[in-house]
């Protein structure tokens, strides 16, 4: 079953806000370009979908970008400083995967931040914003439809949570959640594969949207927090299977 193409407004709220860029010197440009590209790729990875470590090869990256290994190493050093990767002696650079307890802490932090965002959205969103949030889930009103397009629903699920953060109008919330997204995104993908979580996800999303539409900030905040804490409970219950 093919979903209808989203409106320009729905598509717009899925895209991050552009920022002013100061053009640096050539060497700095290469380092920054590689850093941003690698970080974007890491955030979109399904790092918990395999037991094998996800490795970043300096030589391959250098060849792909047509640069020396110096800016590649500098970009990787920036990612390591931010906790996205780590260097293992005699093995190389691998993407960092968190433990179950660390993931639960990350999800709890996300729950608090997104709950604040949902409250803000309920107080300042337009009718057009609400319609765009609903349109993200057009064609996914029932679990059976989700099963037919699980990958698409997983993407819509992540887009919804990013949209709530973005529509809050708080750049601080956007920045605070950016580094958490890598792990939250990956765990949400796994959770959506469970039938019980899928149906609850659908119901929760529409409940949050309804609260926002009614401008009920207290309810929007509460439902958003409960929804994400449900993901933490899922990890607590199924963590051994996910993290080995």
Automatic annotation (TrEMBL):
Q: Which residues form the HTH gntR-type domain?
A: 28-98
InterPro entries to which the protein is assigned, alphabetical: GntR_C, TF_FadR/GntR_C, Tscrpt_reg_HTH_GntR, WH-like_DNA-bd_sf, WH_DNA-bd_sf
Its recorded name reads: Putative HTH-type transcriptional regulator YdfH
Keyword annotations from UniProtKB, A to Z: DNA-binding, Transcription, Transcription regulation
In terms of superkingdom, the source organism counts as Bacteria
- Record-linked PROSITE patterns: HTH_GNTR (PS50949)
* Organism expressing this protein natively: Methylobrevis pamukkalensis
Q: Name one GO molecular function term.
A: DNA-binding transcription factor activity
Gene3D superfamilies the record matches: GntR ligand-binding domain-like, Winged helix-like DNA-binding domain superfamily/Winged helix DNA-binding domain
């Amino acid at each position: 079953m093919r979903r209808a193409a989203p409106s320009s407004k729905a598509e717009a709220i899925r895209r991050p806000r552009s920022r002013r860029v100061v053009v640096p010197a050539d060497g700095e440009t290469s380092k920054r370009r590689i850093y941003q590209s690698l970080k974007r790729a890491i955030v979109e990875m399904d790092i918990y979908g395999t037991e094998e470590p996800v490795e970043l090869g300096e030589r391959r990256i250098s060849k792909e970008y047509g640069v020396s290994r110096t800016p590649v190493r500098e970009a990787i050093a920036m990612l390591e400083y931010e906790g996205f990767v780590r260097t293992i002696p005699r093995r190389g650079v691998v993407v960092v995967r968190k433990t179950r307890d660390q993931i639960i802490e990350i999800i709890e932090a996300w729950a608090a931040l997104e709950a604040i965002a949902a409250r803000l959205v309920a107080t300042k969103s337009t009718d057009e914003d609400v319609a765009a949030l609903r349109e993200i889930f057009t064609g996914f009103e029932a679990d059976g439809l989700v099963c037919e397009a699980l990958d698409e629903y997983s993407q819509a699920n992540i887009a919804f949570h990013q949209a709530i953060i973005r529509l809050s109008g708080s750049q601080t919330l956007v920045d605070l959640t950016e580094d958490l997204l890598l792990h939250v995104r990956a765990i949400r993908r796994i959770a959506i594969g469970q039938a019980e979580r899928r149906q609850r996800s659908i119901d929760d999303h529409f409940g949050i949207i309804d609260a926002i539409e009614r401008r009920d900030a207290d309810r929007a905040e509460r439902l958003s927090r409960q929804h994400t804490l449900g993901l933490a409970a899922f990890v607590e219950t199924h963590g051994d299977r996910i993290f080995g």
